[in-house]
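Quick question, first post here. What does this chain look like in 3D?
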Amino acid sequence: MTESDARDLLYTMTETESLRKHAHTVSVVMKALAKKFGENEEKFAVTGLLHDADYEKYPDEHPNLIVEKLNKMGENEIAHAIAGHYTIWNVPRNTLMDKCIVAADELTGFIVAASLVRPTGLEGMNSKSVMKKFKTSTFAAKVDRAEVKRGAELIGMELNDLITFIIQVLQQNKEELNL
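> Answer (accepted):
Ran it through. Tokens below.
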């Protein structure tokens, strides 16, 4: 599956701009993680694009519908990574892609949220400012802080280093992502 195919599928399943934007930001981060680790960039990007594709319309069945659809299309690796993109679902993370989607999803959303409350947005943002918000439980309260930490651990990165990496990726792609 190409990124273009994945974008088309995402847009048929997801209507809200905010969820589409989240999908795109996670996709860009996943692609950068693939590059960092020498993995398949397109496959990682597609995983990022589609990880929440069924969430908007079917939150109680998420991620089962997109996983089923991808399996029927023969995209089993991507389907498996999406099936386990939240560790409490107890899906084994066998590949680096399975681990990277956990590392990218919640933390990318959190960093974007933190940038939105800064007068300069992503400009000048650093790990220290993100960690300050991270320690404030009322800020982006729905973000599972333990899951964010598990994601960094899964890919063998210190949380501060992963935050810095994601900030840099978002800064480099801020026009494309409209951040």
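The chain has ten helices and no strands.
The two ends are 27 Å apart (CA to CA).
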